[in-house]
Each structure stands twice: as C-alpha cells, then as structure tokens.
Amino acid sequence: MLSLFSKHQVLKSRFGTKVDQFCNILVAVILFLIFIVAYNALQRPVNIMQYQQVIQFSQQASHPRTQHMAIVILRHSSIRRVDYLKLLNAYQFESNRIKQYPAMKQEDE
C-alpha cells in the first residue's frame, strides 16, 4: 500500500507540472481566441435595421448628444458595430439622466 502511494507521488511530481503547464497554456490560447473573435465581431458593419435606427437617432431632438453622435457616425462610409453599440450606450445613459415631466397647463403657471 505504501509503495502505491509513493509511486503515485513520483508520477505526480514527474508529470504534474507538465499537465498543469499544458492546461494553463490551453486556457490562455482559448481566451486569446475568444478575444480575437469578439474583436472581429465588433469590426463588422451593422445591418440594415441597425442602420435605420442610427438614422432615427440622428433625426430625433429629445436627446441632443445622442443625436450629434449619430450624425457623426453617419458621416463614416461604413458603420462598425462597436460605434453602433457606443451610440446605444450613449442613448441609454442620456435617456436615464433626462427627466421628462408631463406638460403643464396654462392655468398652472
């Protein structure tokens, strides 16, 4: 029984570091590939529906900073997804900050 335990310890010490190194390298390669795929996905152009939404953002006046950002994005020859996602983030941020109150009657003034 003791000899089996010592054999296991010897094999573990001999091959254990190589297996750990291999696993660490494999995880690093997989993470690197995920970052490459994500970067390529962000560099692709937007589809027609997203392009129309950018046009709508450029024509609305309730969120002026988002409108300006959409106009700047429309000046590019092709719109990348990363720019579209930044525009959506800016729209959401601006719409959360703006407080819209109901219209007042003339009598309430």
TrEMBL record:
The chain crosses the membrane at residues 21-42. Keywords: Membrane, Transmembrane, Transmembrane helix. The keyword Transmembrane helix applies. This is DUF4845 domain-containing protein.
